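Annex B, item 7. Sequence and structure tokens for protein A, then protein B.
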Amino acid sequence: MMNHIEIKSGIEQMDIVAIHHFLSHDSYWAKGISFELVKASLENSFCMGAFLDGRQVGFGRVITDYHTFGWLADVYVLPEYRGRGISKEMMRFMTEQPWVGKLRRLMLNTLDAHELYRGYGFNNLTNPVMLMEVYRPDVHLAKSSS
């Protein structure tokens, strides 16, 4: 039986080293990302983490202005803890934040978790012809010119 999962928010609660390790080594979307870039992205997001016995086993963040728009990003649960409802706990925690219910639009990208997110109100784009993007999936690998 798994011990109780605790969901916490705020960058000061997050294990940035562990988050960076997962994103840079195990994610399909941010392999090779630098620690500095991860840390900076967390500093400018609403962060939430899933903890078991003090160890961070899951993470997600919302890039948001807290009033009109949010982008859910970098959501993961460590492989050995998947299938235990941890991602659902994180999604419940996020959707219960008072400001989330007031956002005009909340978006995300996912390769394989569509059904999870549908359970929390996410759907296919209503009018995809209205959305545009600049897509640079490997920009985090470019050397800084500073």
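Protein B:
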Amino acid sequence: MGRAFGIESWKVNDAASLEPTLRKAVQSGAPAVIEVPTDRDAAGPWVPGWWDFPIPAYIKDERQDEYDRIRATEQHL
């Protein structure tokens, strides 16, 4: 997606590649996209941390209600 907008982009598939890729992105001095595929359920309930991208507060329609309904069923609560 980043490349479609002319932005330098990388995909990181393993932990060892993350730091060098982040360094490249920062050193570029320009906007950058780093794709890090994740599985939000892979860590399991014993590992702290959560990737959560809520609906922005300015959105006050059914999307917020749907987000709240689905979030209430997630394992991290």
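Comment on protein B: The chain has a mean pLDDT of 80.
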